[in-house]
Amino acid sequence: VASFMALFWSIVLLAIVMLMGALFLCQSLSVSLEDDTLELDTRLWIFRMYGTATRAFYTVFELTFSGGWPNYARTLVEEVGSAYSVFFFVYIIVVIFAMFRVITALFLRDTLAVA
After folding, report:
1. pLDDT tens digits, the chain, 115 residues: what are they?
2. How far apart are the C-alpha atoms of 102 and 16, rounded to whole Å?
3. Cα(68)–Cα(112) distance, rounded to whole angstroms?
4. How far apart are CA 7 and CA 114, in angstroms?
5. How many helices (H) and strands (E) does the chain have?
6. Which residues contact 46 (CB under 8 A, 6 or more apart)?
């Protein structure tokens, strides 16, 4: 039971962090959707991936769990602005590297304490 509580709160924490990242991307990229200096294909890709809160959350979910995060980051960094590299750098290090390691350690600690 204790390991399920650790798993539950880990999922809640991850969902909140992913939601914050998704909302940041959705809001910051809304200006790019109306930017005529960007190519139409780029603007369509931005809308398809980050155009609404739901789309942005699903994209952040994919980049967090699929391991294919460069596919979602490269276009933003190269076409929209290099400042997005800072966001992805921090997100990848904090969420995918550090947070997953801490969650794994907590889950293993609770599981081994029961065993």
Report:
1. 667 777 788 889 899 999 999 999 999 999 999 989 999 999 999 999 999 999 999 999 999 988 888 999 999 999 999 999 999 999 999 888 888 888 888 778 877 887 7
2. 16
3. 32
4. 14
5. 6, 0
6. 29, 32, 33, 38, 75, 76, 80
